[in-house]
Amino acid sequence: MPAVMMEAPAKLNITLKIVGRRPDGYHELNSLMVPIDLVDRLAFSPAARGIHLSCHGIPVPGNEENLVFRAAKEFFTRVSGSPSLSISLTKNIPVAAGLGGGSSDAAATLKALNGMNGYPLGAGELAEMALGLGADVPFFLHNVPSIARGIGERLKPVTRWPDFWYVIVTPPLPVSTAWVYGNLKLELTGSENDYIVSPLREDWSTIADLLENDLETVTTVRYPVIESIKGLLVEAGAEGALMSGSGPSVFGVFRSEQAAKEAGKYVASRAEGKVFVAGSYKG
Questions:
Q1: For residue 198, is pLDDT > 70?
Q2: Catalytic site includes residue 214
C-alpha cells in the first residue's frame, strides 16, 4: 500500500469570546476560526506491528505525548484493530503557539486512518473521537472557516470568508494554555450572541472591528511584547492585529499577498521570533 499523505493546516482565531465555564471545568466559547496555509505534513504507511512515529522539523515528542500518536492509538482502540503503522510528521507549525498545530495533526491522523481502513467510522463518531483528543480537533476535521461554539464542537461554516492574507509572528515565549485559562476573569467577557455572524455577511471593510480575543487580556499582562508586536504589524500596514488562541502568536490581516509579503519583511527585521506569511487554506 502506498503512503497516504496529509496536510495539517494551522488556524487563527479571528474572534475568541469566552462566554462561561461548565461544571466540568471546560470553558464555553464563541470563536471565528479560519485555517491558513501554514501546514504540517504527515505520511502514513504500513509497518511492523505497532505504531511508529518519526518527527522532523520543529522538535516534538515521538511518543504518546504527541497527539498524532494518541489519535492513532484511539482510532485503533475504537475500531478494535491491531495497528501496524508508520507515521512520519514534518512539523512546520510552531508548538504551543496558539495556532492549533497539534490539534490539526490529530485530526489529519483520524481522517487518514479512517480512509486507509475503509471508513469504518462515520462523521459523528470521528467528531466524538476528535473532541476527546482536544477542543480544537473537531474544527480541523473540516478545515473551513467556521464559528465554533460550546467548547469548540458546535461548528457553523462561514461560506463567504474572503481570501485575506496574514502575517504571523510567534515570539519565543513559554505560554501555557492552562495558565491563561486559569487566570481568566470571566466577568470581563461578554455574553454569547450573534455579533460575530451578522457583520460577516455583508461588510468586509470593518475586519478590524471583528478582531477580539478575551484571552489576550491575560497573556499581555505577563508578556507585554505581544502588544508591541500588534503595534508593529499595524505600523507595517495591517488592517488590524490580534493574538491567536492563548498565544503567544500574533497575526495581522492584509488584503493582498504583496502587502503581506512586504509587511512580513518589515516585521521580520524588527521583531524577535518566527515570522510567517500565509494565505487562506484551500485544502
A1: no
A2: no
Q: How are beta strands 4-21 and 212-213 bridged, if at all?
A: parallel
β-pair type (165-170, 50-57): unpaired
pTM to 2 decimal places: 0.92
Kindly report, residue by residue over 209-252, the tens digit of the pLDDT. Answer: 889 999 998 899 899 999 999 999 999 999 999 999 998 999 99
32 DSSP β-pair partners: 15, 147
Cα-flanking dihedrals φ and ψ of residue 239, to 5°?
-75, -20
| Domain boundaries defined on the chain | 4-156, 159-279
Written out in words, the top-level CATH class of the domain with range 4-156 is alpha beta
The amino acid occupying position 260 is A
- In order, the DSSP letters of 94-145 are PTTSSS-HHHHHHHHHHHHHHHHTT--S-HHHHHHHHHHH-TTHHHHTT-S-
Distances in Å between the alpha carbon of 240 and those of 94, 205, 243, 244, 261?
Answer: 22, 11, 11, 13, 16
Q: Give yes or no: 136 in active site.
A: yes
Which among 11, 17, 111, 230 is annotated as catalytic? 11
Given the residues 40, 105, 111, 136, select the one marked as catalytic.
136
Q: Which CATH superfamily is domain 159-279 in?
A: GHMP kinase, C-terminal domain (3.30.70.890)
For residues 102 and 108, what is the distance between their CA atoms, to the nearest angstrom? 10
